[in-house]
Amino acid sequence: MDVMPKYRDEFFEERKDLLNKNHVYCNHINKFIKYLCLPEVQLSNAPARINIDVVEECIKYYHDEGELNSRSTMESHLESVKSFYDYLSETGRATDIFSNYSYSKFKDEIVEKYSLLEPVERGSYKCEDIKAILIKLDKAIDNFQGESAGIREEERHLQRIILRLFIKLTLIAPAKRSVITSIKNRISQKNIKNCL
Predict the structure, then answer these.
(1) Burial of 173 by CB count in 10 Å (0-12 exposed, 13-18 middle, 19+ buried)?
(2) Distance, C-alpha 172 to centroid of its chain
(3) What is the pTM (predicted TM-score) of this model?
(4) Which of 36, 119, 129, 184 could form a disulfide with 44 if both were Cys (CB 3.0 to 4.6 A apart)?
């Protein structure tokens, strides 16, 4: 195993409490290590060659991949990597690559350089509007329900139930679309397995 993945695993083990509260850190640190392991980068076994420029190149790579498009995601990524490097510095495994830089200036330069989106407050609905939407949704879906006409109709009914749940989740508890889509896909896959 290369050095940086080994350090990551040790960090995850020693900082369980921090990572349980900030599970996003795991994702961003894994992305950073994955970037270091890429054939065109090959720095997963060379911690001394990793510097702030490598961190910026990692951000550029994930921005180009479409996975890092906003200031908040970039800040979360940097905070995760910074926390990882705090650990490496404390344990004497590597020097803190962030110590010689103005951290806020560095973040602002990245935002400007890659035209990252600034946070936008999400809109909200009034409770009465949500209730009206949900009532109309339930009525519309119930109108499609008739007597069961075989397996295809059961599958359609199941899809309508999943759609209903998906819409209710997005209205009542707005979250990232990717999280809700992941939940929807897991439910669909589970139901398909049950039908087989």
Answers:
(1) exposed
(2) 21
(3) 0.61
(4) 36
